């Protein structure tokens, strides 16, 4: 078996395992999402959005790209891993102390004193969050995607069960905060216990230099990336009411939750594999072409599903009180059309150590989004959504062009592969347009359309793979079919 085929098989096998885990995590997250959306108010979600925006910035600062450096390092020996672990402790403690000391000022600056105590409590997760990145890096480097996903699912289930009980008992904002805290702490305990290697405190100056040379720029890149992801909510906390922020945050959170799970299939699987072939440009080119093709097929299907089933999704997942967010939901779902470009580019940037470029492109994203939100704020949350979508589109294309330049692959070839991947959704688009034109969007009609939509998607991807494309039919579909049949046989026996 050639090395090129071996890498491809590893990618598909990893994606198969990660897909199973992702489906499990998605079901758990969406179930918890639907329950909490009915138990808490838009105001409470607004305050939680502000708390998490602040916390995620400091979590990124503490994590510092150290977990990614463990994966990216070809020969990560014990000294390297121990040094990475020790740096995570050091940075985690510093970031936690900063948030605790300045929690009152931060609360007043971005919102009000309502978030003061919850912010202090959730700052206790910064240290374990940074340590988790090292443990996750070890699992991912060993391609143990299934084990990692199961451990994450266990921690999430326990944490959310407690959060839901607290919400039912009337603890409001504190219920969702405690759920987040418990999830991080339980992950830390489980990953540490089951990790094949138990890192301990040790610092090597040479290893610190190696980590900083890669992780330093990655830290800046992730920090600016986190600021970019949170800046809409931070600015809205100053210019909009907490209720408006809560509505925007919860609607976008649903889309981001689904994206993070689907993107995780591609990102988590590709990162360690690409790191191992980073010196083979032909293998990199082949991986980029096929990954973009698969990614665009998946994300196009997701976009069409979200756009044409928006009302039913909001009714079932968020609840009837959120139906005024349908247009916002559809605007934000437009980002799905080019999430594949951004996901693939980010993964290749980290895997191939183009982290300096990653920092500058995310810094540029921030610089574009701030004035974009400022000029569109008079149009409310819809204006903010449009600004976010346009900046995401622009930066996705820039990152893709950079990867094409560095790997010496045609930008137009990648666009062609992306279009080929998206063509399979044309029958579904026609279905959606006809439904919106001819039928009233009553709940029964929506359910009927959703069932027909799912059946059509299954026919396209499951029974008529030629409609998706030759690459899918000849290389991806047989692997998926074999994997599914083997799982069914195991279940039967």
Describe this entry's structure for a reader.
Helices cover 85% and strands 0% of the residues. With 493 residues, it is mainly alpha-helical. The chain is globular and about 65 Å long. It is built from 21 helices and no strands.
How large is the count of helical segments? 21
* Percentage beta strand: under 5%
Helix content range: over 70%
Q: Which regions are unreliable across 5 or more consecutive residues at pLDDT < 50?
A: 3-11
Distance between the termini: 32 Å
The best one-word shape is: globular
The averaged pLDDT comes out at 80
Q: Which structural class is indicated by helix and strand composition?
A: mainly alpha
Number of domains: 2
Cα-based radius of gyration, to the nearest Å: 22 Å
Largest sheet: none
Order of helices and strands: HHHHHHHHHHHHHHHHHHHHH
Extended strand count: 0
Topology:
Blueprint: H1 3-39, H2 42-63, H3 66-72, H4 78-101, H5 103-110, H6 116-123, H7 126-141, H8 145-168, H9 173-194, H10 205-239, H11 242-276, H12 281-308, H13 310-318, H14 326-333, H15 336-351, H16 355-376, H17 380-407, H18 411-422, H19 426-438, H20 443-463, H21 470-492
Which key features would you list for this structure?
single chain; 493 residues; mainly alpha; 2 domains; 85% helix; disordered N terminus
Brief characterization of the structure:
By secondary structure, the protein is mainly alpha-helical.
